[in-house]
Amino acid sequence: MAEDCYTELEQAIQVLVVNFYKYVPKHSLVRNKISKSSFRKMLQKELNHMLTDTGNRKAADKLIQNLDANHDGRISFDEYWTLIGGITSPIANLIRQQEQQTSG
Ligand SMILES: [Ca+2]
């Protein structure tokens, strides 16, 4: 893929999508979904700076339980996206606050 021609935002979106599929089992009958244990691994490996407590199994399981909207015990792309939204919205608020402080 010619990634050089993509904008930073497009590259970021691609990273988010690729990261999801990195944890989807390649030879599983359950396509396009991440198991709880793999998702826990992803939280620990990929989000340990933005999410505290990812090493805490109980906390991670609770987060996964909350994300698993259809309660099938696996995380779909939509459910993963809920997590991304949950992480980014406090960041957006922080940026907005900083802008308000500098402008007024
Ligand atoms: Ca689910």
From TrEMBL:
Annotated InterPro entries: EF-hand-dom_pair (IPR011992), EF_Hand_1_Ca_BS (IPR018247), EF_hand_dom (IPR002048), S100/CaBP7/8-like_CS (IPR001751), S100_Ca-bd_sub (IPR013787)
The keyword Ribosomal protein is assigned to this record: no
Keywords noted in UniProt: Calcium, Metal-binding
Domain of life: Eukaryota
Biological processes per GO annotation: response to calcium ion
Listed SUPFAM superfamilies: EF-hand (SSF47473)
Domain EF-hand: 55-90
Molecular function GO terms recorded: calcium ion binding; calcium-dependent protein binding; protein homodimerization activity
Name of the protein this chain belongs to: Protein S100
Species lineage: Eukaryota, Metazoa, Chordata, Craniata, Vertebrata
